[in-house]
C-alpha cells in the first residue's frame, strides 16, 4: 500500500508539471502518513540534509564549474574549430564535426544539456551558414550530446557511483568505450545519410590551419587529463581533481585573454544554480529512498522479479526500456536517484556487474533527451535554432537506429563497459 501511494502521488504530481522536489517531498509525506508513521515526519528534513551534504558528492560542483568556465571563456568555439579542421572535409562534414566536438567538449562539461547549450549555438550557427537546414543542425546537435555523460568528468556517473557504492574512477573508465562507440555509430550514420542527401561540402584544412587550431584546442583538453590522471594515480580525490581542473581553466582563460570578471560571475552563477538543484533533488530522493528501505520495497521486488524475468539480459532489457520511457519525462539524475536504490538488490540477484548496469542505465536515460515529445534536448536546440519543434523531431528519429543498436550491444556485451576498468584497475 505504501509503495502504491508513494509512486501514484509522485507520478501524478510529475504529470501535473509540478517541481520534482515538490513531487518527491509530498509523496514521501503522504506515504508516511498512510503507513501510520506521521510521527516520523521530522526525519524527512534530517534525511534531506544528510544526503545533500554527503562528502562523496563534493566533486559535482567542481565538475560543473569546470564546464561552465569553459563555456564562459570561449573554449567551446576553439574546440569546434579544432574538430572542424580535423574532420570538416569529410562527407556530411559539419555533422561529423558536431559529433567530434561533442566528444572533445564532453570532457569539460560531462553533461548532455550543458553540451547542447555550450556548443549548440556555435555548431548550429556554423551549419546554417554552410547551408544545412536549421532542423537538421538542431537534430545532430541533440543526438551528438548523448556522448557527453560517458566521457569523464561526468556528473551523471559520479551520482551513480555515489548511489551504487562503486568507484568513481571505475565508472569514468567504463564510460569511455561506450561513449566512443556512440560517437562512431553517429558518424557512420552521418556518412550513410550523406549518400542520400546533398549535404554541403568544404575543402580539407591545410596543415597550417590544423596546427593553428590544435595549439589552442589541445590546451583545453588538458583539463580532463588532469581529472583522470589525478584520480587514477591516486594523487587526488575526484573533488580535488575537479578543483585543479577548474583552476587550470582559469589560467587558460588568462592565457587566451578571454577571462574577465563578467565571465567568472556568469560561470559561478550557473554553477550555483545547477549544483543547488542537483543537491536538493539528491537530498529529497534520499528521504524517499529511506522510506522505501524501511518498507522493504527493494527486497520485495528482488524476490518477485526473478520469477518474471528469466535471465540477466531480460532484466537489463526491461530496465533499459523503462529508463528510456521515463527519460522522456523526468531528468536522468532524478530517475537514478529514485530507481538505483530500488534496483540494486535486483542487480545483485541477477549477478549483473554494478558498473555494467550503470552504463546501460545511463545510455537508456540519456537517450530520453532526444526522445519526443518531452525530450529536453529537443527544446533547448529548438530555442537555439528557431526551427519548428516538429521538424527537429522528424530529423532526430532516424538517429535512433544507431543509438538503439549501441544500447543493444551494451546490454548483450558487458565487455564494452568492463574491459577498460578491468584492464587499468583490475577486476573487482
From TrEMBL:
Topology class, membrane: Multi-pass membrane protein
Record-annotated membrane-spanning stretches: 27-44, 56-75, 95-119, 131-151, 171-193, 214-235, 241-259, 271-293, 313-330, 363-384, 396-420
Keywords: Cell inner membrane, Cell membrane, Membrane, Transmembrane, Transmembrane helix, Transport
Residue span(s) of domain TRAP C4-dicarboxylate transport system permease DctM subunit: 7-415
A GO molecular function held by the record: transmembrane transporter activity
Alphabetical list of InterPro entries matching this protein: DctM (IPR010656), TRAP_DctM (IPR004681)
Location relative to the cell: Cell inner membrane
GO cellular component: plasma membrane
Pfam entry (one): DctM
Annotated NCBIfam families: dctM
Summary of subunit composition and partner proteins: The complex comprises the extracytoplasmic solute receptor protein and the two transmembrane proteins.
PANTHER family in alphabetical order: SIALIC ACID TRAP TRANSPORTER PERMEASE PROTEIN SIAT (PTHR33362:SF3), SIALIC ACID TRAP TRANSPORTER PERMEASE PROTEIN SIAT-RELATED (PTHR33362)
Record-stated family: Belongs to the TRAP transporter large permease family.
Role of this protein: Part of the tripartite ATP-independent periplasmic (TRAP) transport system.
Name of the protein described by the UniProt record: TRAP transporter large permease protein
Organism: Oricola thermophila
